[in-house]
Amino acid sequence: xxxxEKTLDDGEALRAIAIxxxxxxxxxxxxxxxxxxxxxxxxxxxxxxxxxxxRDAILGRLGNDLDFTTSARPDLTAKILKKWADAxxxxxxEFGTIAxxxxxxxxxxxxxxxxxxxxxxxxxxxxxxxxxxxDLGRRDFTVNAMALELTTSTPTFIDLFNGVNDLVKKQLRTxxxxxxxxxxxxxxxxRAARFASQLDFTLEESVLAAIKDMHERIxxxxxxxxxxxxxxxxxxxxxRVGLSIxxxxxxxxxxLPELPQLKLEIDEHHHHKDVYEHTLTVLEQAIxxxxxxxxxxxxxxxxxxxxxxxxxxxxxxxxxxGVSFHHHEVVGSRMSKERLRALRFSNDVIKDxxxxxxxxxRFHGYGSGEWTDSAVRRYIRDAEHLLVHLHVLTxxxxxxxxxxxxxxxxQTYDSLEERIATLMEQEELEKIRPDLDGEEIMEIxxxxxxxxxxxxxxxxxxxxxxxxPLGAETAKEELLVWWAKNKP
Length: 488
Prior knowledge:
The chain is an alpha+beta fold. 53% of the residues lie in helices and 10% in strands. The chain has 23 helices and 13 strands.
C-alpha cells in the first residue's frame, strides 16, 4: 500500500493515496463500472463502489465481484441493469439488492439502506435511506464503510469514519458503538472474527468487549448464515486467528461448542497434550499440505478442526497418572455428523468429514509396517475417494515436539504410501470389484435379483480385499461354500 511511513494523523495524504489506489484498480480491473455509473447518472441517481471492493482496491487486490450502493430504488436499478448486463437477478429486491453479471464481472447494487434485527426474529427489517452517509454509518466496520462515488465529475472518495487509518493500523473498528452495530446484525460478530483471519487484523478493544457481552445474540441468526461465515473463516489464510476470537469471545460456545470444550483440564498427575492447541496446529499443518488436494479444501479443514472432538466425552484418568481417550474417533465421528447437520452443511460434506474423523487413527495400527497387503487394501477401500485427504490428515495429526519421533512417524507413513501406490498400480484398487459380477452370481446360484445377491457380492468383495485376485474358478468355489452355509 506504500503508506507505512506515513503518520496516522496525515489524513489528507492517506486519503489521496486511497483515492489513487482505488480509482486506478477500478479503471484497470472493471472499466465497465464507470460505464454503468454513467447510466445511473443519466437516470438522475448516484452510484458508488462501496464496502469490501473499496477496501480491497486500496489494498491492491480488487477482484471480479463488485458491490455498489445507489440512491435508486430496486425496481429502477433492475430496469437499468437489464439494458446493460448479460443476466440480472432480482431475488434480493425485497432487501434492496439487485445482482447482475456482464462478462466475467459480477455485481450487486443495493439501495441506500439500514438493516435491523428484532430481538426475537431471524429476519432483518430493511429500511431504504436517502443518503450515502446514512448508509455508510450503518455498515459493519470502518474499513468496509468507505465508498468511491462514481457519478460525480471525478470519482469522489468518501471516508467518514477514518477507515483508511484503520487499514493502516490493521484494526477492525465499528463506525458507531459496537453494541449498536452488533444489535442491528449479530452476524457481524462472526464477521469480525472472519475479517481478522482474512486480513490479519486485530479487533479494537471495545469491539472484542462488545462481542463478549453480546455473544449469546448470535443464536438469533440462521444456521445457514452462521455456516457461511464459519466456512469463509476456515477457508482464510489464517483461520487460527478467527477461531481463537470465536473461543475467547464466547461465540464458539454457541455455534461450535465442541471447540472450546477441547480445553481440557490438565493436572500434575494426569498429563496429556493440550487438545485445543493441538487441534489448531493440526489445522495449520493440514493447510500446509493442501497442495496434495489441489488447493484450499473445506473437507480437510473441517476434518482437522473436528478430528479430536470426541476426546472430552471419552477422557478417562489412568491410575498412577496419564489420560486415555479410547474410541474417541468413533464418538467424534458421530459428534461431527451432529454438529455439521446442525450447521446445515451438505450431506456430502457431512459424510466425508465424519468418515475422516472415524479413520484418522487407523494408521497407528500399522506399527512399523506389520500390516499385511490385505490390511493395506482395507485401508484403501475404507478411505475410498478420501484416500489423499486421509494421507493429509494423518500426517498433519503429528504435532509432537520430539523431532526424532516425528521423523520416524513420517518415514513410516512414507512406507505405507509407497505400499499403497504399489498395490494400486498392480491391482487398480480404486476400481476393485469381486471376481464375479452380479449376473454371474445369480447364474451360479440360480437366484433372481434380491438381497441375497447383494450379500453374496459383498462376501466375494471381502475375499478379494483379503486375498487379492482369486480368479473366476476359485471365486466360484468360495461362493458355493458360502451358499451352502447361508442358503435359506
